Amino acid sequence: MNNTLKKIWNIVSTALVILIVLCAVFLMGSRILGYQCFTVISGSMEPIYKVGDLLYVKKVDVNTIKEGDPITFILNEELVVATHRVVRVDAENKRFYTKGDANEIEDNDPVHFNNVIGVPQFSIPKLGYVSDFVQNPPGMYITIGIGAVLILLVFLPDMIGKKKEEENEEAAAVQTEINTTAEENEKLKAELAQLRAEMESKKGE
Predict the structure, then answer these.
(1) What is the CATH number of the domain that holds 50?
(2) Pairwise CA distance, residues 25 & 61, whole Å
(3) Of 46, 42, 47, nearest to 80 (Cα)?
(4) pLDDT of residue 28
(5) One domain, residues 110 and 71
(6) Rounded to the nearest 10 degrees, how much is the dihedral formed by the CA atoms of 112, 115, 121, 125?
(7) Looking at the structure, do residues 74 and 117 belong to the same domain, yes or no?
(8) Would you call 128 exposed, middle or buried from its count of C-beta atoms within 10 A (0-12, 13-18, 19+)?
(9) Are residues 27 and 48 in the same domain?
(10) In a domain, 144, yes or no
(11) Cα–Cα–Cα angle for 198, 204, 205, rounded to 5 degrees
(12) What is the pTM of this model?
């Protein structure tokens, strides 16, 4: 691989690695900071949260939640998660009454304080599609495969270059040895010729 192609490949591979790392940080690293990620699957909170957006939700003290705040909560016994806006607070019975911004009526059932997961802090448009893809088969397997291939391709040029360099060094060492042997042979021939000349000279005397 010549230097120009190697430089281009290094730039491309570095960019891909950075992209993967950033995705991993946004998808997984957020948990270290106390966020839970949820993908928006309906348009009930449009235009603020659109289908496919990835919500970053953080747990808060439910007593600090007030009317007008969006909350993420467990909707039913099937553990379906929803995000709607609080329209009324029943502190005495520990209930939030909610409604989707795009819905015309309130939700049928109030949300118990214990079912509140947290409050959305921010969202990233369309990243939810990526999150769902990489966390569920077959996308998970495809992502792992792509990661493995990328890692291989990142290190392969260096491995090939190192092997070629070793081969060149071995070839150079062999050539040096051949040259050294040839020089020694020439030197030996010269010594033999000189010795022969000396012997001929002595015979002539």
Answers:
(1) 2.10.109.10
(2) 26
(3) 42
(4) 67
(5) yes
(6) -110
(7) yes
(8) buried
(9) no
(10) no
(11) 95
(12) 0.62
Output the furthest CA–CA distance in the chain (Å, rounded).
Answer: 135
**DSSP β-bridge partners for residue 55:** 38, 123
Among residues 39, 120, 127, which one has the least CA distance to residue 72?
Answer: 120
Inter-residue contact 70 to 83 (CB < 8 Å): yes
Nearest of 51, 72, 16 to residue 125 by alpha carbon: 51
Of the candidates 86, 54, 55, the one whose C-alpha atom is nearest the C-alpha of residue 70 is: 86
Give the whole-angstrom CA distance, residue 149 versus residue 156. 10
Is 76 in a helix, a strand, or coil? coil
For the chain, how many structural domains are there in total? 3
Q: What is the dihedral angle through the alpha carbons of 60, 116, 110, 121, rounded to the nearest 10 degrees?
A: 60
Per-residue pLDDT 10s for the chain (205 aa) are: 567 776 777 777 777 777 777 777 766 657 778 899 999 999 999 999 999 999 999 999 999 999 999 999 998 888 899 999 999 999 999 999 999 999 999 999 999 999 999 999 999 999 888 877 877 788 777 767 777 777 777 676 666 666 666 666 776 666 676 767 767 777 777 777 777 766 666 665 5
Task: Compute the mean pLDDT over every residue in the chain, rounded to the nearest whole number.
Answer: 82
23 & 62 share domain:
no
Find the domain containing 182 and state its range: 150-205
